[in-house]
Design a protein that fits this description.
By secondary structure, this protein is an alpha+beta fold. It is built from nine helices and seven strands; from the N terminus they run ααααβααββαββααββ. The radius of gyration is 32 Å and the shape is elongated. The chain starts with a helix and ends in a 6-residue tail after the last strand.
Length: 307
């Protein structure tokens, strides 16, 4: 009889203990459920906390905390991405509106009773505007490609002479420079400056750089190449301000408010340089306190340089 009583007492204590554990677990599950709901609803961003000391409940809480943190990061990326997409669409629409409006106006003029000479002039203007549109869409395509790390990493790297790359790029803008009576001054070391780069990527960087110079350089352009792979361009300017220079590598920024390009050329150059471990920066140098003209200096450090 005493043994039976002892067994009953033991079972009663065990039942009470299990009941206590169940109550604690239910409370822990309730806390977890409420905190998960608050996190998902965005009511709080605080880390999950439990009053229970149960190991399994705490393990579950920690696992959910990691998952919720990852979910929060992804949500934030989506929010930022959505804002960026809206901003990009607005900027692109703004840049494309000007040439499209001009084309529409010239088409209307062609439909009127225009003379033969006027029709030739209107067609010539339409051709110029369609060329602008083609260049803009090409810039936007190149920008999307420059943003894709997988595409960049798949490109074949080769040993290139940096001086030759820059010479080829400058030569491709010969006509544009000639129209502005601009003769670039080149300061190169005698020995080759070898870099490990994809040739198309290297050409795209400097094509975008010199395309910008061909539009905005005022009277002169100096290009210096150092043996460590640093490239320095310098040209006088009267249009740029320190604020403009600070925004030069931003997407869609243009000096002329999008009238000549989409404003992604220098942004593409920055992305490609950064993707390959290099740096690019710009600064405005004052010639003197009396002169309004200043010098725009762009410094590019390409990596890696090989022997």
């Amino acid at each position: 009889m005493p043994i039976l009583i002892s067994i009953i007492i033991f079972l009663a204590i065990a039942a009470l203990f299990l009941l206590y554990k169940v109550v604690l677990l239910r409370r822990a599950m309730k806390e977890i459920r409420q905190q998960v709901k608050d996190r998902i609803d965005g009511k709080t961003s605080s880390a999950m906390r439990l009053t229970s000391s149960d190991k399994e409940a705490r393990a579950l809480s920690e696992s959910l905390e990691r998952s919720l943190s990852e979910l929060s990061e992804e949500r934030q990326k989506l929010v930022v991405g959505d804002k960026d997409l809206r901003k990009n669409i607005t900027a692109i629409s703004h840049d494309l509106r000007t040439p499209l409006t001009a084309i529409h106006s010239y088409v209307n003029l062609l439909e009127e009773d225009a003379s033969s000479e006027e029709r030739k002039e209107y067609i010539s203007r339409i051709r110029e505007r369609t060329n602008e549109l083609r260049e803009m869409t090409e810039e936007l395509f190149k920008y999307s490609v420059s943003q894709d790390p997988q595409y960049q990493s798949s490109l074949e790297v080769e040993k290139l002479d940096l001086k030759r790359v820059i010479e080829d790029s400058l030569l491709s803008f010969y006509n544009e420079f000639q129209k502005k009576n601009l003769v670039p001054e080149m300061h190169f070391p005698e020995e080759p400056v070898w870099i490990s780069y994809n040739r198309k990527t290297a050409m795209r960087i400097f094509d975008n750089l010199f395309s910008n110079a061909a539009k905005y350089a005022d009277g002169a352009l100096s290009v210096t190449v150092l043996s460590d792979g640093t490239v320095i361009t310098e040209n006088p300017t009267v249009e740029l301000t320190p604020v403009m220079v600070s925004k030069m590598f931003d997407k869609y920024f243009t000096v002329n408010d999008g009238k000549e390009s989409t404003g992604v050329g220098l942004s593409i150059a920055r992305n490609l340089i950064s993707e390959n471990g290099g740096t690019i920066s710009a600064e405005l140098l004052s010639r003197s306190e009396e002169e309004e003209r200043k010098d725009l200096l762009i410094r590019i450090r390409l990596c890696p340089v090989c022997s």
